[in-house]
């Protein structure tokens, strides 16, 4: 397991398990250098957003990091730059560390277009 590795204190390692495994990862984490991140967050605060997870919920779980704008969310779910920016602003305003994904599609990368 990753917990058995000696991580230098000058290095932060971030892992982002699927949502259903977040609580297990949080409970198993004994390293100050290992951070657990959520793979996504909803762009609004707490409310009747069935199936969505707010920044406040992530904070309640003890998370400090979140991935926003991953290429799969953009390509498959149609997430826009505007939606990603709104998510990032909410997370940053609440003190989270945002891992903001930008960049190319796989086809663009393979074609050396970016």
Automatic annotation (TrEMBL):
InterPro entries: Aldolase_TIM, TIM_sf, Triosephosphate_isomerase. It is an enzyme of class 5 (isomerase). Pathway: Carbohydrate biosynthesis; gluconeogenesis; Carbohydrate degradation; glycolysis; D-glyceraldehyde 3-phosphate from glycerone phosphate: step 1/1. It holds the Pfam family TIM. One of its GO terms (biological process) is glycolytic process. Its EC number is 5.3.1.1. Keywords: Gluconeogenesis, Glycolysis, Isomerase. Belongs to the triosephosphate isomerase family. Gene3D superfamilies: Aldolase class I. It comes from Giardia intestinalis. This is Triosephosphate isomerase. PROSITE patterns: TIM_2. It comes from the Eukaryota. Transmembrane segments: none annotated. The lineage of its organism: Eukaryota, Metamonada, Diplomonadida, Hexamitidae, Giardiinae. CDD domains: TIM. Homodimer.
